[in-house]
Design a protein that fits this description.
Number of strands: 7
Shape: globular
Order of helices and strands: HHHEHEHEHEHEHEHHE
Structural class: alpha/beta
Helix content: 25-40%
Strand content: 15-25%
Strand order of the largest sheet: 3-2-1-4-5-7-6
Radius of gyration: 17 Å
Length: 225
């Protein structure tokens, strides 16, 4: 029997809500197996055979941002990770409708993908509006923890970037403290507008427009030193 203490705490809540629509269910059966990451260690050369940049989005929600970035950057291969099955089904619909061929998906925990990537393998990482786990007793479940930040720094190439966004003020403070503490990451902001305003290449999603947090969205961009 495995030791439950060795199992990492989940950084996300439910993995399925409403019933999957028939068309999306068909895509889960037919398209997802073709896009799914292989088991075991991940080889960037196989994920991006042309040698182009490799980006990762952890927690892509409904997939709007993931699909839009893939469409705008055809020379990039995007890995999308999402534990919520309804979100994965939604992303597959966007991928199918837009005929995107530069997306790979993993339905599960983003930390699993980070652990399977070699050092200095990613050019960019997005973590946009992750579950804030607002109750104090649940904050240990937040994705941004020192060990996860260390993994992010490990897999980013020198000069590679991380974008973290949230609309929860306490999580913004929490994340900024832990990200700035890592010696391998440098916050790129020079003035308040650099984090108060959406970056030029940001894609607003339906979740973001709902305004469910307690503050206007903030965007923290970090560069791997």
């Amino acid at each position: 029997m495995s030791d439950p203490r060795s199992t990492p705490l989940r950084t996300y809540g439910r993995i399925k809500a409403r019933p999957i629509k028939p068309r999306q269910g068909a895509l889960l059966d037919s398209l997802l197996p073709r896009l799914a990451l292989p088991d075991g260690p991940l080889d960037p050369a196989r994920l991006s055979p042309g040698g182009g940049p490799l980006w990762l989005e952890i927690g892509f929600g409904g997939g709007e941002h993931l699909a839009a970035q893939a469409a705008a950057n055809p020379g990039v291969v995007l890995i999308g990770v999402e534990p919520f099955l309804n979100g994965a089904a939604s992303a597959l619909r966007h991928i199918d409708e837009q005929g995107l061929t530069n997306v790979r998906l993993h339905v599960g925990d983003g930390r699993d993908v980070l652990a399977r990537l070699p050092a200095a393998s990613l050019d960019r990482i997005f973590i946009l509006f992750p579950d804030p786990w607002p109750k104090t007793r649940h904050q240990k479940r937040r994705l941004i923890q020192p060990d996860t930040v260390a993994e992010i720094a490990r897999v980013l190439k020198p000069g590679g970037t991380l974008r973290f966004a949230t609309d929860v003020s306490d999580y913004a403070d929490w994340a900024l403290e832990r990200l700035t503490r890592h010696p391998g990451l440098s916050w790129t902001a020079e003035r308040a507008d650099d984090w108060r305003r959406p970056p030029p290449d940001h894609v607003t999603t339906r979740y973001e427009t709902k305004g469910l947090g307690d503050c206007a969205p903030v965007f923290f961009d970090f560069r791997r030193i």
